[in-house]
Amino acid sequence: MKIFFRILAVIILSYLILMIPLTSENPVRLISTEQPFEWKSDTLWKKLETDFEHLHANHDTSTFTRLINYQNQTDSLLQVLIQNEKGLFSPAADSLLISFFNYSILIPFQPAYTDSLYARYKKIRIAVKEIQRLLPDDINTKRSIYKLLYGTRAAMEEIILQLPQKTDALVIFDSGNEDQSGINVHGLKIKSGDVLLSRGSASVSALIARASNFPGNFSHVALLHINESNKNISVIESHIEKGVAIADSTAYFKDKKQRILVLRKRTINDNMVPHKAASAMLEMLSKQNIPYDFSMDYNDADKMFCSEVASYAYSTQGIKLWSVPSGISHPGAVAWLNSFGVQNFSTQMPSDLEYDNEMMLIAEWYDRDLLWEDHVYNAAMDALYEQAKKGLSPEASCWLLPLARVLKGWSIIKNKMGNIGPIPEGMNATTALKNMWLTENHEDLVKHIKVSATEFQKSKGYLPPYWQLVKIANMHAAEKFSNK
Fold first, then answer.
1. Three-state SS for 323?
2. Contact at 8 Å (CB) between 103 and 67?
3. What pLDDT score was predicted for residue 168?
4. What does the CA dihedral 59, 61, 66, 67 come to, rounded to 10 degrees?
5. Where is the domain boundary, 167, 193, 211?
6. What percent of the chain has pLDDT over 90?
7. What is the CATH classification number for the domain harbouring 358?
8. Is the domain of 162 the same as that of 196?
């Protein structure tokens, strides 16, 4: 009996020792003075929804005429931008976006014109990226580019979700796709050196996608390499769980993704530069193991986060991607990301590469059901960040800390043997528990948003647009964390 109590005492004492928290501050190394982008367009969003609700309730017979008028107006305003390189900084740019919004909300009532909306969506985005080449590579250009690229996508996606028929799409842009070399994958010709932006389905994916001062749609970056002799495709990417690794295209596309965007480096003198960049990254991986960089320091190549894989590869060819670094200034985003190990807040966020002057738009893919998930996940994270601004922070349960530390010890052993443990390399037990807290609270908020969205749809007859999802999310988050 004494032996039993001694063993029990040792277990209890060990448990209590493992409960002792460690001070694990992550000092901020690099801050951003850039201010978060603000639309300041609540009046416009409200007008668009009021117009849409009126159309839905009254089946206005004038929609065809209005659609043609807005279609022509959109075309005219786009020509103004194309003919004047400074047009992106003029009122015409805002007018074009508003015209496209007004044009978009009519499509669900004239669904035969869906393809015409797609066509103009593509034309606007291609034109904007071409005009960008003539503009200074600075934050003002980025703001103008962001409004039109993010804004037109947001409008398109709202309409896709409102259409009665399900539309899963691969949108191929003309820009940069004239050369027919490459390998056909899922209906698209890809090339060595192409960069894939994607959005995962985990809560941490929403955390990353919405953290930038230019909140975006993507949370992950991967670099393609195509072997010149056997045409084998390698996807090079950095994972939190295992650092920089190589997968084939089958494994990459099999992994659940809410969206994918294909970008291609502009080439002028040497068309082989993208392939050389990808090859340099592959060569580096053959010589050393590169762990994940939780601090998000793109100047340190000994560790790499996902964006750094692409930026480092191209830097070997003298090319700088993310020429305007991503800023993270939202106090909630800074506090939360810092608690997960991020120390550099002037960095390279996945979504921002879309607005980089060096990159051309090649194609994007989405699934409508996953698109809806993406919108709900974003709204939930936007609401959590607002709570973070008020002082809410991820928690690590002291009662679960001993178990997490045991799992971390087991993970270290597995890492030494070349395997992946339950807690990623570079992440400590406390951070793992904070990640669990984030996932549980984000998923709970997502569940409540979906219930309220269903009620909204029953009442209004259509899915709530994104700004309504954010209102719903903020309401549930305020209620959920009212006592925090």
1. coil
2. yes
3. 62
4. 70
5. 167
6. 55
7. 3.90.1720.10
8. no
Q: How many domains in the chain?
A: 2
Confidence of residue 188 (pLDDT cuts 50, 70, 90): confident
pLDDT digits (tens, 9 = 90+) for 276-288: 999 999 999 988 8
Give residue 258's domain range. 183-365
Q: Are 76 and 112 within one domain?
A: yes
Neighbours of 239 (CB within 10 A): 15
9 CB burial (10 A radius; 0-12, 13-18, 19+): exposed
Same domain, 201 and 276: yes
What is the residue-wise DSSP string for 194-243? -EEEEE-SSHHHHHHHTTSSS--S--EEEEEEE-TTT--EEEEEEETTTE
User: What would the mean pLDDT of 13-19 be, rounded to a whole number?
Assistant: 52
Q: Does residue 301 sit in helix, strand or coil?
A: coil
What CA–CA distance (Å, rounded) separates 237 from 471? 35
Query: Would you state the pLDDT for residue 14?
Result: 55
Which of these three, 167, 201, 229, is where a domain ends? 167
- What is the CATH classification number for the domain harbouring 151? 1.20.58
Q: What is the pTM of this model?
A: 0.90
Per-residue model confidence as pLDDT tens digits over 396-440: 877 777 777 777 777 777 777 777 777 777 788 888 889 999 999
